[in-house]
Structure formats: structure tokens, C-alpha cells
Amino acid sequence: MSFPALLRPLVPLLSFGALLLPGPSYAQSVPGFAVSQYATVTDPVMLSFGPDGSLYVGRDPAAGGSATPVLVSKVGPGGAPVTSLGNVSTSDPDTVLLDVEGTISGVPGTLLVSGLLTSGAVGHLSGIRPDGTVVTLYAQADWANIVEMKFDNNGRFLFTAVESRSIWSSTGGTPTVLATLPGSAYPTYFTVAPDNRIAVGSSDGVVRIYNANGTLANASFVSFASLAGLEYGKGGAFGNDLYAIDASAGTLVRVNAAGVKTTIGTGFATGNATKDLAFGPSGDLFVSVNTIDRVLRIAAPWTNLGFALAGSQGLPQMAPAGGAGPGAVTTFPLSQAAQSSFGALVLGVTRVDVPLFGGVLVPNTDVLLPYATTAGGTASPSVLWPLALPAGIPIHAQAWTFDPAAVEGISASNASRTISR
């Protein structure tokens, strides 16, 4: 592809909508973010991401809970394909966790699966090997019903269990109790902070903070009437605050370091319908909704994908401002580009990652918007999105500028991605 081809006349923006398939609308609203359907998954419960972006999903055919033996699911990076895992069904496989290093399972890439055995008296921790074979790793009445499992930032295995009212841990041997909740409260969802402290939800509505060694750091950090997921942000647009679904109000809540709650989203399913939260490798937030067989994605307006190609002022930077929606305006401020030059903003509904001029063209060339840079190497092209733009459509953007100092005479900004809303 030659660069002059990138500067062909701009496709009218109204035609951009014609390239897009109609998308669904969602009751969930998270202002400043885009909510879309990521995947259709049967009876989804707990979520666990692999390092390659694959999503592993626990399953329960009854939103209120059951011990029915079923297969768990795997969702490929990007939301497809959705496949079932295991050569046999596992009893009550609500909770899943990918054992990347094989710390607990002994075989790297084994999916840990837990829940009640059909007897209801003994809990099991099973492993689904990479070849699909299901093996029992532990069976213990002390933790007959595991609620959630995670690895901390040092690779230690942690889980919460109802019957023992405890948090358990293991570095490869038989799990032992790390901490027991006070009174009659039992633990439910939990998450691990960047400093390895553990935030634990409980049956009494209180979220407590425990140090990595199991000592209690904060006995009443924050309270919820009912939880349906608890996770720390992974940076980016969500930052590093604590996030939770309030299952009684159907809201997405952010909790800062002081324990102050802020509602940032509404319209989520209440009661037993919403099951878990998980941050993906890209920093987006995912929500499982058991009653409608759906995993939702909550995405920042624009995600930085990288792939900038250096020119005369280093790596050009583009930081889009404004989400993509019917009648909305998005500005694409560009800096550190070639001075007093010209180029094209490329917009595409698909990502192609084509090698070009020593760099990578990330978006497909569905829409091209010419721009001129200032004497300081800046530009601010903008897009008025058509009123017919449907929700849930991925949009990719990248700016390419003539630059004599670039490896082949053309530099490129970082690419960015958003979901229309």
C-alpha cells in the first residue's frame, strides 16, 4: 500500500455508519465508558483470564446455586470462539482459575475448578489439564464450598471458603488457613491489591482488608448490602481503586483508598443474576450475568494499543478525547509529529496490523481524514459521528504523517481503540 493511497478523498462520515452492523443496546450505563456484549456463554459464573487474553468461565445452571455436573467454558481472545473444556463434567464448577505456572496442579496451563461434590459434604479442587483430562487435586470437607480463587502477586494460591469462614493459602502443598473471619461471618468474593493485601467481602456485608500474612489491617473498610464481584483496577482509565457490583442496587461502585464509595454505573442485574467482575489484560472490566448467558465488557472510551513509529520529534502521540456515539464529536489531538507537514487519520472497524513504512498500520482504512500539522508538530482532527452509529462497534484509530526523519519518510502515532456506545 502506498501512502498517497491513504490520502484518497475522505469517505463521507455518514457512509461509515453503513459499514457497521446494527448493535444491541444495553440497560447498563457507565458514563464515560462503553458497555457491550463480549461473549455469549452458557450459565456464566466466575471469571479468570489467561495471559493471552483467553477468558475461562465457571458455570452453574441455577443462578441460586446447584451441584449439577457440567462443563466449564473458554472464550477466545476478543470474545470468540466459545468452547467447552474437560473430558467429563465437573460437579458445581462455579469457580475457575488458570494455573499458568502449574504451582498447584503440577502441570502448567491447567485450569483449576472448584465447587461442591454431589454428596454436598466434601469440597473439591479439580484440574482440567491442557489435554482436557480432568483430575482431582484436593477433596476436603474443611472447605466444602470454595467461593473464589486467585494467585497473589507473588504466585501464592489463595481462596475463600464458606464452611470454614476462612481464607486459605498454598504455595504448592496442601492448603492451610491464612485468616478466619470474626464472629459468624463467612467470606465471599475477594481480591488482591498491588501490595498483596487482601480485600475480602463477607456475609455480613463488610469488606475487610487483610495483610499478606493474614493479619487484619482494616475490620470495616467499606460495606455493601450484597456483593456480586470485587476487583482492584489494573491501571489505565479505571486506575487502581477497588470496584464492586452492588447486587442489591444493581450498581457498579468504585471505592477509593479511604473507603469512600462512588456509584459509576447503573442498570446491572440484581440478586443472583450478576456473578463476577474481572479485569482483562487490556484493562477493560468484564461482568458475568448468569441469567442471560452473557459476559459484558466495560471499556474505557479509548485504549492505547501502541505501535507508534518514530519521526523527527520522537514517537508521535495521539490521545483521543470523547467517546464514539450517535451525534457525538471525538477529537484526536496529535503531538510530537513532523512540523508543518500533513497526513491522514485512519479509522477502521477492524484491526489489520499490516506492516507499513517500517511500522504497523493497525486500523483497516474504512475512513481517512486528512490533516495538517502546525509548526509545533500538532494537529487536532475531529469526527462528528453519524446519528445512525449503533452501539457495541469496535473503532480503531491511528495518525500517519509525512516525516523526512522517519525510517521510510512517514511516521505514525500510537493506535487507539474504542467501542461505540
Structure description:
This protein is mostly beta strands and 421 residues long. It folds into two domains: 3-21 and 302-419, Immunoglobulin-like (Sandwich), CATH 2.60.40; 34-299, TolB, C-terminal domain (Neuraminidase). Helix content is 2%, strand content 47%. The protein is built from two helices and 36 strands. Strands 25, 29, 32, 34, 35 and 36 form a six-stranded antiparallel sheet that branches. Strands 1-24-23-22 form a four-stranded antiparallel sheet, with no helix packed on it. A four-stranded antiparallel sheet has the order 2-3-4-5, with no helix packed on it. Strand 8 (123-128) and strand 9 form a beta hairpin. The model is unreliable at 1-26 (pLDDT under 50).
Main traits of this protein?
421 residues; mainly beta; Immunoglobulin-like; Neuraminidase; 2 domains; six-stranded antiparallel β-sheet; four-stranded antiparallel β-sheet; 2 helices; 2% helix; elongated
The CATH architecture of the largest domain can be given as 6 Propeller
Measure the end-to-end span: 32 Å
Mean pLDDT value: 89
User: Number of helical segments?
Assistant: 2
Instruction: Give the overall shape.
Output: elongated
Q: Which structural class do you get from the secondary structure elements?
A: mainly beta
Entry summary:
It is built from 2 helices and 36 strands. It has helices spanning 3-6, 13-18; strands at residues 34-40, 44-49, 55-59, 69-75, 82-91, 95-99, 110-116, 123-128, 134-140, 146-151, 157-161, 166-170, 176-180, 187-192, 198-202, 206-210, 216-223, 227-232, 242-246, 251-255, 261-265, 274-279, 285-289, 294-299, 303-306, 317-318, 329-331, 334-335, 342-348, 351-356, 359-363, 367-372, 382-384, 394-402, 410-412, 415-419.
